[in-house]
Automatic annotation (TrEMBL), chain A:
Gene3D superfamilies: 3.30.465.10, CO dehydrogenase flavoprotein, C-terminal domain, Uridine Diphospho-n-acetylenolpyruvylglucosamine Reductase, domain 2. GO terms for molecular function: FAD binding; oxidoreductase activity. Residues 1-224 form the FAD-binding PCMH-type domain. Keywords: FAD, Flavoprotein. InterPro entries: CO_DH_flav_C (IPR005107), CO_DH_flav_C_dom_sf (IPR036683), Diverse_Substr_Oxidored (IPR051312), FAD-bd_PCMH (IPR016166), FAD-bd_PCMH-like_sf (IPR036318), FAD-bd_PCMH_sub1 (IPR016167), FAD-bd_PCMH_sub2 (IPR016169), Mopterin_DH_FAD-bd (IPR002346). It comes from Croceibacterium mercuriale. This is Molybdopterin dehydrogenase.
TrEMBL record, chain C:
Residues 1-29 are annotated as: Disordered. The lineage of its organism: Bacteria, Pseudomonadati, Pseudomonadota, Alphaproteobacteria, Sphingomonadales. GO terms for molecular function: iron ion binding; oxidoreductase activity. SUPFAM superfamilies: CO dehydrogenase molybdoprotein N-domain-like (SSF54665), Molybdenum cofactor-binding domain (SSF56003). This is Xanthine dehydrogenase. Signal peptide: none annotated. InterPro entries: Ald_Oxase/Xan_DH_a/b, Ald_Oxase/Xan_DH_a/b_sf, Ald_Oxase/xanthine_DH-like, AldOxase/xan_DH_MoCoBD1, AldOxase/xan_DH_MoCoBD2, AldOxase/xan_DH_Mopterin-bd_sf, PaoC-like. Residues 32-142 form the Aldehyde oxidase/xanthine dehydrogenase a/b hammerhead domain. SMART domains: Ald_Xan_dh_C. PANTHER family: ALDEHYDE OXIDOREDUCTASE MOLYBDENUM-BINDING SUBUNIT PAOC, XANTHINE DEHYDROGENASE.
Amino acid sequence: MRPFTYQRVATAAEAAAAVAGNPGAKFLAGGTNLLDLMKLEIERPAHLVDVQDIEGLGTIEQAEDGGLRIGALVTNTTLAANERVRRDYGVLTRAIVAGASGQLRNKATTAGNLLQRTRCPYFYDPNLPCNKRNPGSGCAALEGYSRQLAVIGSSDKCIATYPGDMAIAMRVLDATVETVQPDGTTRAIPFAEFHRLPGDEPERDNVLAHGELITAVTLPRPLGGKHFYQKVRDRASYAYALVSVAAVIQPDGTGRVAFGGVAHKPWRVEAAEAALPQGAAAVTAQVFADARPTEHNRFKLPLATRALAGVLAEAKG
Amino acid sequence: MLAGSGAAVALTQAPGVQAQGSSGGAATPPTMPVSFTVNGKEAELTLDTRVTLLDALREHLELTGSKKGCDHGQCGACTVMVNGTRINSCLSLAVQHQGDEITTIEGLGTPDNLHPMQAAFVKHDGYQCGYCTPGQICSAVATLAEIRAGIPSHVQDDITAAPAFSAAELRERMSGNICRCGAYSNIVDAITEVAGA
Amino acid sequence: MKFEQAAGTNPIDRQKIIGQPTSRIDGPLKTTGTAPYAHERHGPNHGVVPNQSYGYILGAGIAKGRVASMDTQEAARAPGVLGIVTTLEQELLPPGQGIVANIFGGAEIRHYHQAIAVVMAETFEQARAAANMIRVDYDRADGRFDLATLAPQARVADESGKLKGEPFKVEVGDFAGAFAEAPVTVDATYTTADESHAMMEPFASIAAWEGEKLTVWTSNQMIAWSKGSLAKMLGMKPENVRLDSPFIGGGFGAKLWVRADAVLAALGAKKVGRPVRIAMQRPLVANNTSHRPATIQQVKLGATPDGRLTAFHHSSTSGNLPGGDVEVATQQSRLLYAAPNREIFMKLAVNDLPEGNAMRAPGEAPGLMVLEMAMDELAEKLGMDPVELRIVNDTQVDPEKPERPFSERHLVECLRRGAEEFGWNRRNPKPAQVRDGRWLVGMGMATGFRNSMATKSAARVRLQRDGSLVVETDMTDIGTGTYTILAQTAAEMMGLPLDRVTVRLGDSDDPASAGSGGQWGAANSTSGVYAACVKLRTAIAEKLGMDPTTADFTDGEVRAGNRSARLSDAGELMAEDRIEFGDLDKQYQQSTFAGHFCEVAVDSYTGEVRVHRMLAVCEAGRILNPVTARSQVIGGMTMGVGSALMEELAVDTRFGLFVNHDLAGYEVPVHADIPHQQVIFLDHPDDKANPLKAKGVGELGLCGVGAAVANAIYNATGVRVRDYPITLDKHLEKLPQVA
C-alpha cells in the first residue's frame, strides 16, 4: 500500500470538490473493497476523502413518489433490516443477505457496494495481464481460468463480472443512482446505465466521473408480487455467485428478472420478461441470446435457466 | 508452451514490474493522530494513515487476540466489535475510527474470568488450533445480538418475520468466520448453549 | 524405553484421567486471545526479543525462468527501510529437509511466487510498500504445468515415490488374467484436484542472531526436523539453531517444513543486524509453499457375483518439481481389501508448478476418494449393498504378506455399527429416487483407513518441590490437543490431578519428540512421556526407599506394601527418556479404520449440494481424550467435505500458477456447509502399538469422507462424477429436466 493522505469532509459538495481537484484522490466509505485492493496496489490512491461524516447520507426515507430514498452511507445490514425494505422490496433484502458475511455487510455501504470491483483472479494478481487493472496489458482470463467470469456483454478486452448481489436487486427494481458532481450539481442515473460493459475501456466499471459522489439510491413505488433472490454458488455462504437471479413475480405470472454473476453489470433484458409466463427457458433464450461463454463457464447458461425455473416454480407454489 | 492470445498479451508486459509511474520515494509517509477506546480504555495513537484497525490493535496496542489470517476480509479471524457491531478489522483504517468504542476478544473475558461464550467454546471444544477462535467468539457474541435485534438472514423463509436462534441461522450468520480445523459442529453447539441461557 | 513386546497391564490402563473426556488445558488461553502465536511475540508484554523489525517477502512474478535484473534503488530509499536481501545477492541455499523446492537464492525461478527478495523496515506498512517498489526483469522460460498433458509421459516411481531407483509395482498373482475373467468389473479413471492447506495462521517467524547463534520463534509442526533443516539451509551447526513454537495456528502438513518466512527472517536479521519478524502474506501462501498435488487415478476391479474381489488394480499419476515425490495415492490400496490378483503402482510427471508435498493424510485422502468411489460403482454393478461389499472383502492380514496380521482390525464393526446408527437400511439403493421438495436426497458411505506409524519420541518430566509436575518436550500442539493429552498421560502415570501438571511444548532445547504429522503425534508423544514417567517413578520410589516395581502412584501419593508417602516428599527430581520401537510394526500391520456415512441433498434445479448428516465410526486403539479426538475427526470430516465439493487450486497452464491464491478464490467449507457431525469411537486398545495402546485419529477423520459424500451425491442424483471436486457444473445438465 502506497502512502496517502487522509481527510474527512462534512458535506457531499466538499467531498466531490476534494476528489475532483486531485487526480490521485478517492472516496473512502466502508473501505471493504478499496483497502483490500490498496494492499495489493491494484488501487493506489495518494489521497483518501473519508465521507463517513457527511450528514444525511446515512438514512432511509420515504420518497415523495411513494418510493424509497436510500442514503449512500446506509450499510448493507441496515438496508437489509429496514422494515419497509423487508416488506415492500424483499428482493433487495434477500440479495443483500445473500452477499459477503455479516461482518462485511455491517461495514459495506450502499454506494460502496455499487462500486465493488470484479473478483476476476487475474485482476487480483498484479503479475498477470489484465486490461482492467493495467489497460493495454491484455486479458489473461479470456483463455485462462474463467469459470466465474462473464458469459454475456463481455469484450475481447475483458470478461470480468460485477461481483455484487445488492445491485442485481436494484436493477430489477429500476432504481436510480443520485450523485453530486464536482461542480456541485446533481444528477440522477438510471440503474441500467450506471454500470458499464467493458468494451474497449474495461478499466471503467461505471459512468461516474472522477470526483462524482453517489449520495443516494432511490427506489420507485413498490411493485407488489413475490420477491426472490436465488444465488447459486459453490459453497453455502460467503461466496460469490456463479449465477444469481433477482425476480419479482406477480400473481398472474408476469414480472421482472435480472441476473448476477453473468456479466460486467447486472444483466436484465426487459423485452424478455414478457415471456415469463411461458417459463424459464423462454425467458433465458432471449436474455442470453448473445451469450459468448468460455469453455469453463458455459454451464452458467443452463444454470441461469434452471435457477430461474426454480424461482418460477416457487412463485407458483 | 504458451498458447493463444493469453501468451501474446503476456509478453507485452514484463511480469512482476508493478510500477506504472512511481510514488513513494523518500518522503515520510503521512501520519495522523487518532483516539478511540478499546475495551473501555482510551487509546491515543499517532499512526501512519495506512495502519489498519487490526494492525493498530496487534502492533501498536499489543492486543494480539485479534488475528490476521488473510488481511483481506476473507477469513474473519480479525473480527472485532466497533460500537457494538462486528466488522473485519483488517479492512478498516485505524484513522476511520476516531471516537469509536472497540471491543476485542481481550475485552470479553480473561483466562481467569471467561465470558460465557468463551466458557462455552472451552466446554464444547469449539476450536482446535485456536487461531480463528477469537474472531469466532467475537462474531458469535455479535451474532446473538444481531438475531435479537431482528437483523434478517439468508436462511429465513420469511424475511419480514423475526429470525430464530436455530442452528441453521447460527451457521449462516457465522459463515464469515472460517475455521480450517473444522470445529464448526462444536462451535454451533457452544453458541446454541449461550443463546439458550 | 524400547517397546519391543505387546504392552501388558500398565498404569495407563487405570484410565482415571487418560481416556476421560477432558477440556483442553490451553482452552482459556486460546479463547481469550492470550495464547502467543509466532507473529505476536513482540512488544513490552509479549516480546521474546527487543528491537524487532518487519520483513516482507516479494514473490516471483513468473513460474519458470531467470531473474535478469532487480532494481532495488527506489525501495532502498523508501522511508523506514532498513535493508533488502535479494535472491541475486544470495547464493542458492540447498533445500531443507523434506522439501524439494529451493527456498531462496540465485537467479533461477523454479515456481511461481518463489521468494526473490525480503525487505526489512521499521514498520509493516513501510516494508510492504517498499517490497512492491522493487522492479524485476525476468527471462521467462517455458514450463510444464498441465498434468493431463504430462501424464502420458509420466514414469513409474520407485518404492520411495521418486524417480531415482527402479520402477516399483506391486504385482501379486495374475491381475490381467483375473480381470479378464471376472464376471463383474469396474474400470474407470478419476481425478482429484490440487488442494491447499489453507491453515488460518499464515507462515510466520521472528529471527534473532546472537553471534553465531540463531533463534527462530516460529509456527512449525516438527521442531527437531526443522532445526536440522534450517541449519542445513543456512550452513550452520544444528546446535547453534534454536526453534520455539508453542502455539501453531494450524498446519495440516504445510508446517512440517521450514519455509521462506523462517529462512528470510534469518537472512534479513543478519543483513540489518536486528531481529526480523515476518508473516507470509496470504496471497503468497499457495504458490510460494506447498500443496497436495492433483492426481489422475485408474481403478480396475474384478469380482465374483457374490462380491469377492478377484482382481485389483489401482494406479495414480501426479506431478511434482524435479526431485519431488509422487502423491502416494495408492498407499492404502496395498492393505485395505483382500484380492488374490493385484497390481498397484504410481507414476510421476515432472512439472514446474509449486511444490507438491504432504497435506493431511497424504496419499490416503485422494486415494480413498477414488478407491471408495470405485467400490461404490462395483457395489451397484453387483446389485450389492456397499457396506456388505466392504465386509466381504475385509482382510485380517496384509494381502501382500498373508503371514503378517493386523495388530487390531475392526473395520467390519465400524461399518456395521455405522450402518445401524446412521439408518443405512433406509437408503434406497436405486439412485435418484428420494425427493424432499426440490431436493434430491441420497446416502453414501466409504471405508476410512490410515496407517499408524511408530516413531521415537522423547520427553523430560520434572517433579517440583511442591509435588507438581512439569512436562517438557519439543512436541507441538497444532490444534490436536497435545497439551492436554500429555498432561493427562503424566497425571495418570504419576497419580496426580490434571491441574498439577504443566506442559511446555515446541522448544528445540527440550527433548526431541515425534512431532505433529502423519497422525503419529498423539500416540508417540504420549508414549515418550510415558517412558519418562516410568523413569521418574523409579527415581521417586528409590528416593523414598520403596520398590519401584510395586510402587503405586495414586492421589498424589506413592504406596508400596504398607508404606505411603506424599509425592512431594521425594523433593525435586527429573527424568528424561524416549520411547523407541522394536519390530512389532513389521510383525503386525498397525492401522486405523473408519466407516464414514453421509447424507446429502442436491438441488434439482441448480445442482448445488448440501450435506445434511455425517457420521464416522472410528477404530484407533485407545482414545486418549474423547473430546479432542472427536474434534480431530470432525475436522477431518469437514476437510473431506471441502475436497468433495469445492476445494481446487485452479492451474493456469499458460502462466504456471494457482490463480485462485487467496481465501476468497480458494473456497474451503464455511459454517453453513457443515451439519452436526456424529463420531463414535470403538474401544479396541492396541497393545502392539505402544504402551498407551493408542493410535492416531487426526487423518483418519478425513480418509474416505470425500468418497462418502460423492457416493451420497450419486445416490441422490444417479449422475456419477469422477472428477473432484464435484461442483454443480459437472452434473447440472444430467439432472432431471426442470425448464
